[in-house]
Structure to design on (540 residues):
C-alpha cells in the first residue's frame, strides 16, 4: 500500500456562510494530497503532464463526518491500495488531530493530450507496483 | 418525483490547466441546482436558514463522463425521488445538449443552528411529500 | 463608450464565514461581465482565443462599498471608455438594485499563445473603436 | 515596518485554461499572508474575530507582472508600513525565487459583528504600533 500525508491549514476563502468549510474544497485538498503522494514516489504530477499524461478524475466519493473551520490544521492521508491499470483508485482521510472529518476516494484515468485513455509507460506502472508491494 | 432544471454557462475561472472544468466545480453547480429546486417548491433555501435549518452535505458522489469547457451552456437536472426524513437525497445530471457530462448525488441532514440533527417542521416535510407524490 | 450589463445570482459557495461574499469573487464576476460585453460586440472571448489571442489581466482595482449576500440578485455593469491599443481598460460597477456594492477596473494585454504582447488584428480594433464611438 | 513571509505551493485548482494561475487567487494568497503576518504579531485573526472584530477588505489593488504556474513554490511578502487607525493598509509582493510575479495592496476596516466601523481596543493598536516602530 502507498500512503502519504499532507498538511493543510484551512484558508478563510474556503469557509462559507455556514461558518465552516464549503464541501467542494475537500476535492481540492484530495488533489493536493495525491500530488504530494506522487512526489513521494519521485514521479511528480507536473512531470507526468510533461511526458504527455493527464490524470482526470472519473469518479469521486466523499463522506463528511465533521465540519472543518477556518484556521484548522488538518492532515490529509492518501492511500493507493491496488496497482493501477488504465485506472487508478485513491482513498483519502482528512483528520483534525484524532477526529476524522471526511473520508473519500477518487478514480482517475490516464489519458494522453488528445484525451484518449492510455496505459501509461512501464516505468510509471512499475513505480506504483513496487511502492504498493514494499509497504 | 421532484425535478428541476438549472442553466449554467461555464465561467473561465472554473477551468483549469487541463483546459476543461475543474472537477470540484460540479459540487458548486449541484448546489445551485438544488437551490433552484427549493425555489421551485416555494421553499427557498435562504428562508430555511432564516427559520433555523441548515442543510449541510453529508455525502457526495460524482461520476464524470465527459469534460465541460469554458463557455459551454449546460443544464443541471436535479431530482428528489424519496421523501426526506432526517436526511434528504438528491440526484443530479449535467448535460451539454444531448451529452451527459456528469451524474451525481448528494445527501444532506437537516441541522439546527447549534449543529444538532433535527427533523424539520411538518410544513417542510409536507411540501416535499406533496411535490414527490404529485409528479 | 461600450456598456454592458450582466446578471448574477450570488452562489452559496461564494460566501465566507463573515456570512457575506468573499472579496475575491468580484474578480470572477468582472470576468463574466467582460465576457458578456465581448459577446455583445459579436466578438466572443472563446473565438479570440481560437484566433490566437489571450487577454490576461495586468492590473485590477476593487473598491468595496457594501457587502453582497447569498442569493442576492446583482447587476454587473461593464464599461470601455477608451479605444484599446496594446492594452485595454475596463471599468465595472456591481449593484444590488440601487445600491452600489463595488466599483473596480481591470487592465489587460493582448498576448499571443507564446505569451508575447501583440497588437490585435485590425478587425478587433475596429470593432472596439466603432462600438466606443457609436454610443 | 512589519514584514512577514508566507510559502505557497500553487494548487492545480488555482490554474485556468490559459494554463497559469487565475488572477483571483492572488487575493486568497494575500489573505493567507496577512493571516500569517497577524500570527507573527501574536494576534491571530481568528482570535480577533472571537473578540468581536472583523477585518473586511475595503480596497484591493493588484499588479500582475509574470504568470505563476501549477506547482510553483512562491513566497508572499506582506508589509504594514503605517500605524492603523480605523483602517489598516497592507502591501504584498509575490515572488518565484528572484522573479516578482505580483505586487498589490489591500485596505481593511475594523468592524464589529453588527457591521459598524470601530476603532479596535488599545491592545491591538499598541501591538501594531510597537511592531512597526521596532523594525
Amino acid at each position: 500500500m502507498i500512503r502519504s500525508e499532507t498538511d493543510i491549514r484551512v484558508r478563510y476563502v474556503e469557509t462559507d456562510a455556514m461558518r465552516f468549510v464549503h464541501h467542494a474544497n475537500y476535492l481540492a485538498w484530495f488533489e493536493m494530497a495525491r500530488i504530494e503522494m506522487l512526489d513521494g514516489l519521485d514521479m511528480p504530477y507536473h512531470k507526468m503532464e510533461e511526458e504527455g499524461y493527464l490524470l482526470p478524475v472519473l469518479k469521486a466519493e466523499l463522506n463528511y463526518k465533521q465540519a472543518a473551520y477556518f484556521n484548522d490544521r488538518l492532515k490529509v492521508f492518501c492511500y493507493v491500495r491496488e496497482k493501477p491499470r488504465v485506472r487508478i483508485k485513491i482513498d483519502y482521510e482528512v483528520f483534525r488531530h484524532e477526529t476524522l472529518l471526511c473520508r473519500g476516494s477518487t478514480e482517475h484515468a490516464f489519458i494522453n493530450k488528445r484525451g484518449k485513455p492510455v496505459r501509461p509507460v512501464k516505468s510509471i506502472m512499475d513505480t506504483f507496483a513496487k511502492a504498493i508491494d514494499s509497504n
Summary: The beta strands of chain C are 2-9, 57-64, 73-80, 87-96, 99-109. The two ends of chain C are 5 Å apart (CA to CA). The longest strand of chain C covers residues 99-109.
